[in-house]
Structures are given as structure tokens and as C-alpha cells.
Amino acid sequence: FSPSVLGTREHWDAAYERELQTFQDIGDVGEIWFGEESMARIIRWLEKQKVPLDSSVLDIGTGNGVLLTELAKSGYTNLTGIDYSPSAIQLSEKVREKEGMSDIKLKVEDFLAPSAELAGFEVCIDKGTFDAISLDPDNAVGKREQYVRSLCSALKPEGFFLITSCNWTKEELLNEFREGFEILEELPTPKFCFGGRIGNSVTALVFQRK
Prior knowledge:
With 210 residues, this protein is α/β, with parallel strands linked by helices.
């Protein structure tokens, strides 16, 4: 990929500062990455698999935290969201407060330099964070490799990793996560047709930690 401002912390700090101000002004939670359907798709899969409601769930790069509030509304009780942008965590705290979801745990944390307590999760979810890391102008390849190492530390053996991406194909993601993970399922995503060829603009995969 070409390096992009979308891969920099400065971009996301500024973006979430704007969204935080907008939320304080008019109560708008801001952008939901990949739309509401992407959240419903994740929750449907967890419910279909009968993943226990008290399973520990980590939302990597939680942003406004809306996915966590939707999980909480669906009955999940052991939810943690991290983001390296303090403004994102401030926004997600305000969204949590508005929704009355005081049990959701939120913390400022860089997934590429995780603290020791970021471990033992049964489910890890990524909607767009791996995409953003892939666009980092500063050593994106090394940071992708660190992401996989961090994921291995955060997720219990046999735990589930659900990733939604608009930058990577299924085959590319299988290659990126070949160390320590096996593919369980590809989740259906909206298809588009261009020039007579049908493709997916979004890839959603479920891996299991070996």
C-alpha cells in the first residue's frame, strides 16, 4: 500500500477530537466503520457459535466504542475497548455513559506496545485497525508483524479473532495471520459488480488462535 496519513496517530487524534466535539455539541457518535451491518455481522456470528455472554472480548482500536455498546445490548458482559488515541477513549466513554453501559472497560493503549494485562481474551475484534496500521508511513511491514505478535499475546489459545478489512483480500489476510492462527470462516459481506466482475469491497474473516 502507499503510505497514507490514515496510518498516523496524528490523523486519528485530530479526527477523534473533532468527533468528540461534535458529540458534545449534538450527540452524534460519529462514523461507524464499515456501517452498522458490520457490527450486526459480528454479533450474529458470536450468537450462532453460542459464544458465552461472559466471554472476555477485546475491541482493538475501539474508536467511538459503538461496537462495544451494541455487544452490551446483546447481552455480552465482559467487554474491553482500547485505542491509542486519548480522544477516541474520551468519546467512547461519553457514548458508554449516554447508553448507560457502565460495565464496559475502556483504556488508552497502543496495541503495538501492549501492557502486560492485555492478555487472556477469548475474543478479539478488529474493524479497520489493521487496515490503518498497514498504511503507516513509518515501517508498516514491521508494525503488521508486531500486530500479529501482540494478537498472539492478547488472545487465549483457541480464542477467536474476527477481522473486518477493506484493504486486504481473504488470501492476503490468510498470509498475514499464518503464524499462530487458522481460518475458521469467511463471513458474507456486500458484493459489488464492476466491468462484469463481481467482488467484495470488504473482507470479514474469523480466525482461531492455535
